[in-house]
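Contributing: when you submit paired examples, paste them exactly as shown. First protein:
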Amino acid sequence: MDGQPLILVVEENLHNLELLNYHLKSLNFSCICAKQGIKALILAQTHQPDLIILDMMISDISGGQVIDYLKQQQKTARIPIIAVIPWYLEQNSERLFLIGTDGYLTKPYDFSKLNLLSRHLTQLSSSSLL
């Protein structure tokens, strides 16, 4: 996909999915999108994205199940996963639902944090090309 880092966005809410897709593309990332966990698993296996942004509140299977499956598969085990959680769960000291993730974002989305995330991913991509 034109040498741009590929991000798999898993978001159940169509409006949020379109918003994330548009914003990430404006930052020069390629995106593939899924509204369900099962579809996300298939896309991750098929495309092996550079990063997965995963809404933990998807309804077909849990975000935790998606993470467990991805981390057990050789093709997807090393893909970084950024969990998306509702803002009110950020204060929860028991973040067991974040096990297996590489970080988290809260809803509503803070696009300045997405910009920081994109800089980090760009640095990782350029360093792996050396």
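Second protein:
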Amino acid sequence: MRKKDTRHTQYEDDFIQRAAERSQQERDKALAQKKAVLAQKKAVLAQSEKRIAELDVIFKRIYEDNISGKLSDDRFIKLSRDYEQEQEQLKAVVETLKKQSFCRIALSLKTNYQFARSFKKSSTSSCVTSPLATASSAV
């Protein structure tokens, strides 16, 4: 009977180890994908913020050109309207990306807290029993 329990324990340990390794590989793959998406969003955010600053400079130049007579009033109005519209769209993109980033950080903190809490609870119990282990020991 003891030999049977030892073999069962060995198979159970092997199963648990393989499942843990597979789970870790899946987590690593998901993390790599998330990092790639995050890097892409950071690049879009940086480009958008840079373009917003460029548009401010451009708007000042066309204003000065309009004042000095190099640019007609009609052309100034058209250009300023186009640049302002582009800048508003970019500001909306930046705001959305920043909100997503804040939500991601908050969710990550919440998940880490919940994991730590559940780990603490499971580590305080003296043993872990599974339906499979309970059923096989009854045989």
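If you have annotations for the second protein, write them as plain sentences, like these:
The first helix runs from residue 2 to 68.
Confidence is low (pLDDT under 50) at residues 124-139.
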